[in-house]
From TrEMBL:
SUPFAM superfamilies: (Trans)glycosidases. Pfam families: Glyco_hydro_14. One of its GO terms (biological process) is polysaccharide catabolic process. This is Beta-amylase. Belongs to the glycosyl hydrolase 14 family. Gene3D superfamilies: Glycosidases. Substrate binds at D145, H185, D193, K390, H395, T437, N476, A477, R513. It catalyses: Hydrolysis of (1->4)-alpha-D-glucosidic linkages in polysaccharides so as to remove successive maltose units from the non-reducing ends of the chains. Residues 18-42 are annotated as: Disordered. One of its GO terms (molecular function) is beta-amylase activity.
Amino acid sequence: MALNLTHQIGALAGASISTTDTNSSSVESVNASPKWRSSTPSLTCKIQRPDAIDGLSPPLSPCRSPLRSTRPDLSAACQAFATEMESPVLEHQVRGAQNKGTGVPVYVMMPLDSVTMNNSVNRKKAMNASLQALKSAGVEGVMMDVWWGLVEREAPGAYNWGGYSELLEMAKKHGLKVQAVMSFHKCGGNVGDSVTIPLPKWVVEEVDKDPDLAYTDQWGRRNCEYLSLGADTLPVLKGRTPVQCYADFMRAFRDNFKHLLGDTIVEIQVGMGPAGELRYPSYPEQNGTWRFPGIGAFQCFDKYMLSGLKAAAEAAGKPEWGSTGPTDAGEYNKWPEDTPFFRKDGGGWNSTYGEFFLGWYSQMLLDHGERILTSAKSIFENHGVKISVKIAGIHWHYGTRSHAPELTAGYYNTRFRDGYIPIAQMLERHGAIFNFTCIEMRDHEQPQEAQCLPEKLVRQVAMATLKANVPLAGENALPRYDDYAHKQILEASSLNIEGNTEGNQMCAFTYLRMNPHLFQPDNWRHFVAFVKKMKEKGSRKCREQVEREAEHFVHVTTPLVQEAAVLMR
């Protein structure tokens, strides 16, 4: 989950903001930031004003559309267009190299509370109108959270799929593909969380009896967003291990929706930590514990994590290193130079002890991913779906030597070591997609005093996936509706980096999020144009033709959008 100061200020104001070798040191891949190749668009015509610059590009005015005079007939046009969209289309492959000529399919994240605590579809009429509008705009599909805390809420093994059965059938009716997220975390307390969905009641009961099942910092503060990976293989949940519980949940999902797998449900994103991301909960917003751009804190002080640390230290012949994690790494809202452990000169992160600890801490996270992916792959193999894992876009203090916020989150990435190649290699072993956030951000939009460099981070991740031969998918970290952000996504999704000799692109992009703001007239116009441009990437159509077609879709979908906007209020 990537953040900026604008978001922090908005949240405070009450605004609605919807391996492997741990000792390796690769200077080549990190010390010199990979460079974007200049794009070479395949256009048959190009008209550009001399004063055109890399900035906001105003959308075409609705009054210039030839459809303006046919507004009374838009409902009929909408119906005809919707019927047309039901015809078979070329299906994008989510997994594997995305060829330059095929474009990048766009999915849209559904509201977090799409299914209510009563296991029914929330705002059913609004949901139906919204899905129809998305399909008519050319969207490939939707992403939906399948909450562990809703489905298996009451008792172990008692699954209630009620609301999801109805929601998936709605998506199928509208011809939308689905990325289903196995959400094993608590909803509430992270950026953009507008609702609270706890872990299953029986899991919370076990955590109450044994607080060490929760991640813990050096001050004893517990974080209950996601169960500590230190207990992954221990039968601490009424006779089952957490990994067994995750596997049983995924297996039950497969068996219940087998008839939709490979057709409607095309991807399973496996949640592996807070916010569904493979990371430690090192920067929790809840109760004001952490504020952007603080460095966060290590989460290895529960008894299960400390037991693993003790064993690793003894195996390394340094038993004195196994009693605790670093205690000189500062607190959540410090900056790297404020701490002995993360400072650039003489910092503990770059010492022999630091290399041992960070290697162990990051490897524990990789092993957690390996365990869950092994189960996911065996469960969904030969069912026509792809597996993906989301990695957080932690871009603040990226320009420092230690990359402290990445280290506390479990990504052993520094100026002298590439921490994303081991993650990509782990995903590649299981045929999984590397899903990454903060694709919409530009370096200069972020506070430079915190050395935020999201563009350079995205390039590094793109290079890592290229080297590991693993598909890369993207998401925007924060809601953006402007052409400037859309242009950045278009550029980043092209993967114009050195070494991409085959011209591969991102295999998919998921847009945050379906809500009333998206259906506001200006935002919808920008969004439809963005979807059209993503689908037409690599085509031989000129920019003006793509924009005309996008504006046509905007007008055709106007009645649907108006209905969705009203119903979602």
